[in-house]
């Protein structure tokens, strides 16, 4: 008699029944163990080990060699969902192929990042797609569909969206709270996640480190109230690394880890990423929470069920049926071609006075200069390069090496101290593998090299290439070799191929010594200690000697001799060439990355000097910016004849740039975020109120340097025959785009909507559709868009719902958010929402129309919002409150101590709030208030009051 398989092994059964069967077979301890990122094998049931989390933002990361595609913000700049879907498919295939060779590679991929790029100073801007929620979600849908695959049952990989929610600052990221009003929440932050989840290719989300409205994202009620309400599919919520511990250790939101863990699990977190591969602390906390009655087994089972459903969908239990099980596509010709295509499509032509494209057949000399001219930079979420192309490589290949001259533009310096000249000893030239080439589950633990001799001081000087990356941060390098770096033993060596690592060990600060003319100390940024010369070599000062800026601070005093200024070398190269390409930008590990926000939009001064020197020597100067974020290039834009921007383009970046400069490809990338003229145009980094502070292209009322959606072409296009009509719940829009130039090229027609006479502040215009198309010279194509009527709406705080106001809406078609070519009008009928029904609904404090000097905080640790003052001069404004025939009293629900001042028309009432027992002890305080008709209501808070709600009493209340 044939033995029947256990039901969970039976592929004829639905996943749900198989999960039920497996779940009841697991012991409590086995189920608890599954809640950690590194879930152990269950040998008695034949279950293998499983881990959540494989980084795959723009290629397989951290696990050694892989195809490296452009940074996420570069993929966003392509405005091409079909291309990005193919990139996602290639990445997913490489995850599968590497998994077959290395079981450390996981199939639950933590990508993409859909945080919106509201502020260009955010250090992790390179990880997002756009400042626009619609564009972000469109690119995210494409990438996740590629990662997921198209099989109806089995998934190629299981994508998790990062980072829920409203997370755009690295400064104090685990302790700061984003104050997000209901309108910003529903119209902006939730939208990027919602559309991607509803598209059906998302397996879950990762909460962010920060708090939103005073409550940590890892205990957010929005995980259940919003996220899991968007789909019938099971979604897994994976914590960010170390975030469960932060709830107690840094945020002090809970008193004990058992309380914090229980609250996270009950809020919807399923997998805990904490303490690396050591699951004991987290599983111990879960058991402790069970013992204290903070959890029950149902809470455990709910999370385990979601995790098992994820594992079933990845084919773990049906390897013979898994269509992706034998995937071997890795570093294929198709993947290499796709990496080049993506890098080409990501290039944005910002300005061109006719200098571009250059003609390689003309045989003229091109100077390729700048700090990134011979660089192919990676970021924290890159894989290890298999192939590498720098701008210099690409231009030499395309224009001929004999026609290229090069100057990097570094300052060549020597450092001298009392013991002599800083010297790099000769070393064995046999090279170790590139850092990270072997792969690492936690690359933060990768150590620097200790096999090379440390620097010394003596009679023989060594030339050093100095780069000032801005904000006082420098790197020092052998002119044609390795960077100075500090390893765990504290010695300084020329040992690193590139700056990198979780804590960068290759950056320094050059600090003047008071009272010592020309004397400086060299502060190592990674350790916070000064460089000292000792008998056994150059090293950082001993621990505890980290005093900065005083004459008696530890560390050797150095003097610097400059043997060549970078701008002099650049000027010589520029003068010897017909055209100059200055390649500027950032290193993605310095001055703007995870854990570190930027401090300015300015291009570093050293790079500013380089383009100015090049232009002074040769007016035919092109500035090619390769960076993870925008710069305020106001002077360069006014001075130079041509500017381009691309994110770090991955393995094919240099070839792609060369092909665009040569005219082999007409550029058609578009800016995914606004480029501002200066820092003065930006709100504070922690200001998340894009409506109130007029942020992003949606609300910004100034003149940007380059607007959202901007990007030029080598050809010309006309737009015509715009037609828009209402069709039930849709607006059908069509237009015709014609290539009137002489070059085959891509164009990206963009569709925007605008409410003509809104009752509340609405976007100046909002992207409602886009399409990238290729047209031969003289060719025309009709482009169709379907715009749901709901896209014309907004969150109505007066009634707590999404609403589309009746009235007139413009449908705008153009080449950018400010280059609008055609406008059509549609009319929406219906009943207006009307004033606030405050007698029946009261006023939730956070449902204001406008605010000044306040922030939203948590009403309780479980759910709800309240508002408190952050400055003495504060106000909450609630427009058009309908008091009908009258009210005689007001009830204020508040905690803390102070007063609530309420003004309606000519009446002002002060409601004192006596001290309550803590910030969550809300009391109801009553006062007389006579108001009738429709009027605006204003509230001012004093003291530590946390206002939750206002209600009204009287005959009609």
Within the largest sheet, what's the order of strands? 11-28-27-26-12-13
Q: Separation of termini? A: 76 Å
Strand content: 25-35%
* C-alpha Rg (nearest Å): 30 Å
User: What is the overall silhouette?
Assistant: globular
Q: How can the largest sheet be summarized? A: 6 strands, mixed
Average pLDDT rating: 95
Secondary structure: number of strands: 50
Give me the secondary-structure category: alpha+beta
Determine the fraction of residues in helical runs and give it as a percent range.
10-25%
- In DSSP terms, counting alpha (H) and pi (I) runs of 4 or more, how many helices? 19
Uncertain spans: 545-551
What is shown here, in short?
With 957 residues, this protein is an alpha+beta fold. The relative contact order is 0.10.
What do you see in this structure?
- The chain has 19 helices and 50 strands.
- Strand 38 and strand 39 form a beta hairpin.
- With 957 residues, it is of the alpha+beta class.
- Helix 1 packs across helix 11 and helix 12 packs across helix 17.
């Amino acid at each position: 008699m044939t033995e029947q398989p256990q039901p969970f092994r039976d592929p004829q059964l639905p996943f749900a029944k198989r999960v039920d069967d497996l779940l009841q077979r697991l012991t409590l301890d086995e189920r608890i163990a599954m809640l950690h990122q590194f879930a152990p094998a269950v040998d008695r049931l034949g279950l293998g080990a499983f881990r959540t989390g494989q980084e795959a933002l723009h290629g397989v990361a951290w696990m050694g060699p892989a195809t490296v595609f452009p940074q996420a913000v570069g993929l966003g700049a392509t405005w091409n969902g079909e291309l990005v879907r193919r990139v996602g498919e290639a990445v997913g295939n490489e995850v599968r192929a590497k998994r077959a060779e290395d079981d450390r590679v996981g199939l639950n991929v933590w990508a993409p990042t859909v945080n919106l790029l509201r502020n260009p100073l955010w250090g992790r801007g390179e990880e997002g797609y756009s400042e626009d929620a619609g564009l972000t979600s469109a690119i995210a849908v494409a990438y996740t569909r590629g990662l997921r695959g198209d099989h109806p049952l089995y998934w190629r990989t299981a994508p998790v969206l990062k980072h829920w929610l409203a997370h755009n600052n690295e400064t104090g990221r685990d302790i700061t709270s984003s104050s997000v009003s209901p309108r910003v929440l529903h119209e902006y932050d939730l939208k990027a996640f919602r559309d991607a989840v509803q598209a059906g290719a998302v397996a879950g989300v990762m909460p962010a480190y920060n708090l939103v409205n005073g409550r940590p994202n890892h205990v957010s009620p929005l995980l259940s109230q919003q996220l899991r309400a968007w789909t019938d599919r099971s979604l897994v919520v994976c914590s960010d690394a170390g975030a469960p511990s932060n709830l107690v250790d840094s945020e002090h939101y809970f008193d004990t880890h058992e309380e914090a863990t229980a609250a996270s699990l009950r809020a919807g977190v399923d997998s805990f990423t904490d303490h690396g591969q050591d699951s004991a602390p987290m599983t111990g906390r879960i058991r402790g929470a069970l013992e204290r009655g903070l959890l029950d087994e149902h809470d455990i089972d709910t999370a385990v069920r979601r995790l098992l459903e994820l594992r079933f969908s990845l084919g773990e239990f049906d390897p013979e049926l898994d269509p992706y099980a034998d995937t071997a596509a890795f570093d294929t010709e198709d993947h290499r071609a796709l990496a080049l295509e993506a890098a080409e499509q990501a290039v944005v032509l910002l300005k061109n006075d006719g200098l571009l494209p250059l003609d390689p057949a003309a045989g003229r000399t091109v100077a390729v200069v700048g700090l990134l001219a011979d660089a192919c930079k990676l970021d924290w979420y890159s894989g290890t390069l298999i192939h590498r192309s720098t701008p210099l490589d690409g231009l030499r290949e395309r224009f001929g090496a004999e026609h290229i001259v090069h100057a990097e533009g570094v300052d060549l310096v020597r450092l001298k101290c009392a013991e002599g000249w800083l010297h790099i000893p000769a070393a064995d030239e046999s090279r170790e593998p590139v850092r990270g080439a072997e792969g690492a589950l936690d690359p933060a633990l990768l150590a620097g090299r200790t096999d090379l001799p440390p620097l010394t001081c003596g009679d023989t000087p060594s030339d050093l290439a100095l780069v000032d990356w801005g904000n006082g941060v420098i790197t020092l390098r052998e002119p044609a070799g390795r960077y100075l770096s500090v390893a765990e033993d504290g010695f300084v060596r020329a040992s690193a191929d590139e700056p990198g690592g979780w804590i960068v060990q290759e950056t320094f600060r050059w600090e003047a010594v008071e009272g010592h003319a020309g004397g400086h100390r060299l502060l190592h940024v990674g350790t916070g200690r000064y460089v000292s010369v000792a008998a056994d070599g150059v090293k950082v000062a001993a621990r505890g000697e980290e005093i900065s800026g005083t004459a008696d601070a530890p560390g050797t005093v150095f003097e610097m001799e400059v043997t060549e200024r970078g701008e002099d070398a650049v000027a010589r190269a520029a003068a010897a060439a017909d055209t100059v390409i200055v390649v500027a930008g950032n290193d993605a590990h310095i001055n703007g990355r995870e854990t570190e926000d930027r401090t300015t939009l300015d291009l570093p001064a050293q790079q500013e000097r380089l383009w100015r020197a090049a232009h002074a020597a040769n007016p035919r100067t092109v500035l090619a910016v390769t960076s993870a974020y925008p710069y305020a290039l106001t002077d360069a834009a006014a001075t130079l004849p041509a500017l381009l921007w691309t994110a770090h383009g991955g393995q094919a970046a240099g070839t792609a740039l060369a092909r665009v400069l040569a005219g082999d490809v007409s550029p058609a990338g578009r800016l995914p975020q606004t480029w501002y003229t200066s820092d003065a145009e930006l709100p504070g980094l922690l200001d998340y109120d894009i409506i109130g502070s007029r942020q992003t292209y949606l609300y910004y009322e100034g003149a940007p340097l380059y607007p959202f959606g901007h990007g030029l072409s080598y050809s010309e296009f006309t737009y015509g025959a715009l037609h828009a009509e209402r069709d039930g719940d849709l607006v059908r829009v069509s237009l015709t785009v014609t290539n009137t130039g002489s070059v085959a090229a891509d164009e990206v027609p963009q569709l925007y909507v605008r409410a003509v006479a809104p009752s509340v502040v609405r976007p100046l215009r909002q992207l409602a559709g886009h399409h990238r198309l290729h047209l031969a010279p003289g060719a025309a194509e009709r482009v169709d868009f379907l715009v749901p009527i709901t896209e014309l709406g907004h969150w109505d705080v007066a009634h707590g719902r999404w609403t589309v106001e009746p009235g007139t809406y413009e449908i705008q078609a153009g080449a950018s958010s400010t280059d609008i070519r055609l406008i059509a009008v549609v009319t929406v009928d219906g009943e207006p929402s009307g004033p606030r029904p405050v007698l029946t609904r009261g006023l939730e404090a956070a449902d204001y129309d406008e605010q000044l000097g306040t922030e939203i905080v948590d009403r309780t640790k479980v759910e709800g919002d309240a508002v408190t003052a952050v400055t003495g001069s504060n106000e909450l404004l609630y427009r058009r409150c309908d008091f009908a025939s009258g009210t005689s009293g007001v009830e204020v629900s508040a905690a803390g101590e102070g007063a609530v001042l309420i003004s309606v028309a000519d009446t002002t009432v002060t409601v004192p709030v006596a001290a309550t027992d803590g910030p969550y002890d809300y009391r109801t305080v009553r006062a007389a208030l006579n108001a009738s008709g429709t009027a605006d209501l204003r509230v001012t808070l004093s003291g530590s009051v946390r206002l939750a709600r206002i209600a009204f009493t009287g005959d009609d209340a």
